Amino acid sequence: MPETTQLTAVDPTAWTCPVALRDHPRVVMGHGGGGALSAELVQHIFAPAFGGETLSQLGDSAAVSLGGVRMAFSTDSYVVRPLFFPGGSIGDLAVNGTVNDLAMSGARAAYLSCGFILEEGVEMSVVARVAETLGAAARRAGVEVVTGDTKVVESGHGDGVFINTAGIGLIPPGVDIRPQRVVPGDVVIVSGDIGVHGVAIMSVREGLEFGVEIESDCAALGGLVDAMLAVTQDLHVLRDPTRGGLGAALNEIAVASGTGVVIQEGDVPVPPAVANACAILGLDPLYVANEGKLVAFVPREHADAVLSAMRAHPLGANARVIGEAVAEHPGMVVARTGLGGTRVVDLPIGEQLPRIC
């Protein structure tokens, strides 16, 4: 039977807009969305205040050396609502998100820290369930939680449970993965269907039904990256397209590398359920968040072998080539449409779906 799409009753007046004017004098939801507002916040406030050459790279994790050992170091905070959703929970996100940030530098995560910010009044059973899912996710990812912290805020000053995790992992000798290595001719590969996590969150948050349950793609990508590195250490850049989706990730890479990016819109894997949901809600799947996917820029001579290795791994079974880096229009991402035209894929201002990770 054909897939059906059904909407349940929702209250649009309760929705909030994550986008605001670029010169807004106060923090708005869009500043946490992974788009242009987030970039401006980092560029104009945090980067000048903190300084440092390593920070200026603005990767998913920082590649640092300590005592002659090269390692990746990353931190992230998780404020997703609801705490539990089809395919995962805030505990899964807290582990997988940080593990994946480390993996995007080629590092295999070794140790995590974990900070819980709890709202006064949240049920202990909820806290226990989150902790259990976090611990189980860490064991699946082969990483150990070795230190942590707990704070409690007054009722009405939180949203049940917020989590911060930081992680470290060793970078293998010879691995140098960063957007500055991208050159024209590099092949762009995405590891599978996009937009799944964001639509899964939206469906439960707003009580929407699309005829089939959409589950988050939340997963730890360390094993997939290991399989790719086994083919060649010469991977130019890896990025997990979380906030801001694939569109934001491609724009960040294009700007950092000074190259243009061209993608074939029809080659981008968007599952029918996500496409239907986005059509109904007026969303662009390119900007919807993912939590278990990566995008890779690979030298053309290694692309076929890397793609085969990805497809042989469970988390890369639907990997596809979607485009290439080009010398033209540096810093800009362009999509070629099925009608033979082109459109610019801009960096989003804020986020289509706030609070999704």
TrEMBL record:
<feature type="domain" description="PurM-like N-terminal">
    <location>
        <begin position="60"/>
        <end position="171"/>
    </location>
</feature>
<protein>
    <submittedName>
        <fullName>Hydrogenase expression/formation protein HypE</fullName>
    </submittedName>
</protein>
<comment type="similarity">
    <text>Belongs to the HypE family.</text>
</comment>
<dbReference type="InterPro" id="IPR011854">
    <property type="entry name" value="HypE"/>
</dbReference>
<feature type="domain" description="PurM-like C-terminal">
    <location>
        <begin position="184"/>
        <end position="329"/>
    </location>
</feature>
<dbReference type="InterPro" id="IPR010918">
    <property type="entry name" value="PurM-like_C_dom"/>
</dbReference>
<dbReference type="Pfam" id="PF00586">
    <property type="entry name" value="AIRS"/>
</dbReference>
<dbReference type="InterPro" id="IPR036676">
    <property type="entry name" value="PurM-like_C_sf"/>
</dbReference>
<dbReference type="Pfam" id="PF02769">
    <property type="entry name" value="AIRS_C"/>
</dbReference>
<dbReference type="InterPro" id="IPR036921">
    <property type="entry name" value="PurM-like_N_sf"/>
</dbReference>
<dbReference type="InterPro" id="IPR016188">
    <property type="entry name" value="PurM-like_N"/>
</dbReference>
